[in-house]
Specification:
Elements (H helix, E strand, L loop, with lengths): L1 H11 L4 H13 L3 H7 L7 H11 L14 H9 L4 H5 L4 H19 L3 H11 L10
Helix pairs in contact: 2-3, 3-7, 5-8, 7-8
């Protein structure tokens, strides 16, 4: 718990807080997830948390490839399935990889007849255990 408080305190006291939240919200709402990712920089806040921000502020309609959360559990499941953001994006650039992750998840969701948010939750819940016989 001390680590969480320390990171929260660092983020809330970061002088860039208001500007980062404002500019990344605008980028997300305009559909520019790559720029939002590239611009998000606050002390103590990593990808798992700032992509939650993106998902929370993305108020685009249901036809848009809305922002999704990308945390270590989702990444673990994607990797267990053999998916690599670096390979999918063709570059080792995290902002590009995030944008490709979001569009890939929405594409898979359409093919499966589910929402991308549900698919993301499933990958989160599986936490890398994606094959029959994987231990819980």
């Amino acid at each position: 718990m001390v680590v969480v408080i320390r990171h929260t305190s660092a983020a809330l006291s970061d002088a860039r807080l208001e500007d980062v939240l404002r500019t990344t919200r605008a980028s997300v709402r305009s559909g520019d997830l790559k720029s939002a990712y590239a611009r998000f920089a606050l002390k103590g806040v990593g990808r798992s948390f700032f992509t939650k921000w993106f998902a929370a502020v993305d108020d685009r309609g249901p036809d848009a490839d809305r922002a999704l959360i990308l945390d270590v559990r989702v990444f673990r499941s994607l990797n267990a399935l053999g998916w690599s953001s670096r390979e999918a994006a063709g570059v080792g650039h995290w902002p590009t990889g995030y944008a490709v992750y979001v569009s890939t998840m929405h594409g898979w969701a359409r093919e499966l007849g589910v929402t991308a948010e549900w698919l993301e939750w499933l990958l989160f819940d599986r936490n890398g255990r994606v094959h029959d016989g994987d231990e819980r």
